[in-house]
């Protein structure tokens, strides 16, 4: 049920995509809105706010934001910042982006979270819905800000959710929820792995009665779903409700075939799992889709993305591999031996598990970025010495190609963020693809 915001004083912390959308939604429904951002607000946002009579402040969170009936917390705002603590001390109502926007949404919601694979899974769900003729869209960490969907008619909404958004969620509800996998990430925000898992697990508390919860079988103990939650576990053993069967090269939901592995053109076993979760969620949420549509789905950019081939050597761009778990998945899921490019700015993770995976799946490695010494130390400790350093991406790709043999893959999967060398992982991935394209062109044209 929509809330009556007429005359209400609503403060919004943060002016990013989610904060801006929430502020505009509140203003549209008659609220007196004040946006407070600890950083600078972009000029286009200021003009937008002024046009819609939204007050704002930048480079601070002053006491002005406490002069309200309710504070809405944008995606990514942690609970420990002084502004949030002050609001709690004053007894103000604190609401997350999801809970604030939910009463204005129309359509069945399939929500996706997880440490890795959530963007691919959510993108696949959204594309399959669209191509099947449903009024649908993607939102959240992918596509539109959630509040931008308010008051619009949809059959389905595919929603990618972060652990930050789920941390604040209490009243949001969805018809199906997917937790693709669990691995340590964003520990600086959550404070511990246990807190991070608890935020992810909160998605299962948001599923409507009779709705479906989907996760890896190996993660069920950590997630500890409530007894009444209808959980569909995925695994490569036949005791799972979503069964990945190597013998028949097909995925099944409750013994009903979902698709053959050859129907999926994405690289790696992890993408077969993403497809199985997507198809299962669609079926369980009442959508009718055709497995033939899987054939045309392409991986989102920078996520185990095919970047070309020359002389029997394949280039794969997994720049979105910004944590150890993502890179371990890429290394273990892609077939054949690899020459892997690692490194960037770290998140404080232990690289021992990464080193074990490199030892097992990569014949050579090239390391770049500010974490290169720490990664090299982990590789040395694991008994792996087949690596070299490079200063820039172009040098790294050239070195990796020179070391690669026919039938191998040059894989960019850094296990780190890009912020030491690039503004974002997309820019890093594009740089890799440009370097690969130059090599391919040179080799083909002599």
Overview of this protein structure:
The protein is 34% helix and 24% strand. The chain is of the alpha/beta class. The strands form 3 sheets. It has a 9-stranded mixed beta sheet, sandwiched between helices. Strands 15-16-20-17-18-19 form a 6-stranded mixed beta sheet, sandwiched between helices. The radius of gyration is 23 Å and the shape is globular. The N and C termini lie far apart (66 Å). 52% of the residues are buried. The mean pLDDT is 93.
Q: What would you report as the Rg, rounded to the nearest angstrom?
A: 23 Å
Q: Going across the major beta sheet, what is the strand order?
A: 7-8-6-9-10-11-12-13-14
Q: Which whole number gives the mean pLDDT?
A: 93
How many DSSP E strands? 20
**End-to-end distance:** 66 Å
Largest sheet: 9 strands, mixed
Proportion of strand residues: 15-25%
Class from secondary-structure proportions: alpha/beta
Helix content: 25-40%
Shape: globular
Helix segment count? 15
Q: Are there runs of 5+ residues with pLDDT below 50, and where? A: none
Topology:
Layout (H helix, E strand, L loop, with lengths): L8 E5 L3 H12 L3 E5 L6 H9 L3 E3 L12 E4 L8 H8 L3 E4 H5 L4 E8 L4 H14 L4 E5 L12 E8 L2 H5 L6 E6 L7 H4 L2 H13 L1 E10 L3 H4 L7 E5 L6 E4 L4 E4 L2 E5 L8 H16 L20 E6 L2 E5 L6 H10 L4 E5 L9 H10 E6 L4 H10 L5 E3 L3 H11 L5 E4 L12 H21 L1
Parallel strand pairs: 1-2, 1-4, 2-3, 4-5, 6-8, 6-9, 7-8, 9-10, 10-11, 11-12, 16-20, 17-18, 17-20, 18-19
Antiparallel strand pairs: 12-13, 13-14, 15-16
């Amino acid at each position: 049920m929509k809330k009556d915001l007429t005359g209400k004083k609503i403060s919004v912390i943060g002016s990013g995509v989610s904060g801006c959308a929430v502020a505009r939604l509140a203003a549209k429904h008659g609220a007196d809105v004040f946006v407070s951002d600890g950083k600078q607000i972009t000029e286009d946002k200021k003009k937008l706010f002024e046009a819609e009579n939204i007050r704002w402040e930048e480079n601070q969170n002053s006491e002005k934001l406490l002069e309200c009936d309710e504070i809405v917390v944008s995606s990514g705002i942690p609970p420990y910042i002084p502004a949030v603590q002050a609001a709690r001390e004053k007894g103000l109502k604190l609401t997350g982006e999801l809970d604030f926007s939910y009463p204005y949404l129309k359509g069945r919601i399939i929500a996706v979270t997880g440490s890795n694979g959530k963007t691919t899974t959510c993108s696949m769900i959204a594309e399959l819905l669209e191509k099947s003729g449903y009024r649908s869209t993607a939102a959240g960490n992918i596509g539109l800000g959630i509040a931008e969907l308010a008051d619009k008619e949809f059959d389905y909404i595919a929603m990618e959710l972060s652990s930050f958004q789920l941390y604040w969620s209490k009243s949001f509800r969805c018809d199906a929820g997917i937790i693709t996998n669990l691995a340590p990430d964003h520990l600086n925000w959550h404070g511990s792995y246990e807190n991070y898992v608890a935020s992810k697990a909160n998605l299962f508390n948001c599923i409507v009665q009779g709705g479906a919860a989907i996760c890896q079988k190996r993660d069920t103990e950590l997630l500890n779903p409530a007894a009444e939650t209808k959980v569909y576990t995925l695994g490569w053993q036949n005791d799972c409700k979503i069964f990945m069967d190597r013998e028949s090269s097909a995925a099944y939901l409750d013994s009903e075939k979902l698709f053959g592995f050859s129907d999926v053109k994405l690289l790696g076993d992890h993408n077969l799992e993403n497809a199985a979760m997507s198809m299962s969620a669609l079926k369980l949420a009442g959508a009718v889709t055709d497995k033939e549509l899987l054939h045309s789905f392409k991986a989102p950019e920078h996520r185990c993305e095919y970047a070309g081939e020359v002389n029997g050597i394949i280039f794969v761009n997994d720049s979105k591999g910004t944590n150890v778990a993502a890179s371990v998945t890429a290394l273990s899921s892609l077939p054949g031996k690899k020459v892997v490019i690692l490194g960037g700015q770290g998140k404080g993770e232990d690289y021992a598990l990464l080193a074990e995976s490199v030892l097992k799946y990569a014949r050579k490695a090239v390391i770049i970025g500010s974490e290169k010494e720490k990664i090299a130390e982990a590789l040395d400790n694991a008994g792996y010495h087949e690596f070299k350093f490079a200063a820039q991406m172009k040098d790294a790709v050239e070195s990796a190609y020179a070391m690669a043999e026919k039938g191998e893959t040059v894989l960019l999967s850094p296990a780190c963020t890009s912020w030491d060398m690039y503004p974002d992982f997309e820019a890093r991935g594009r740089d890799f693809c440009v370097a690969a394209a130059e090599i391919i062109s040179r080799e083909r044209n002599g």
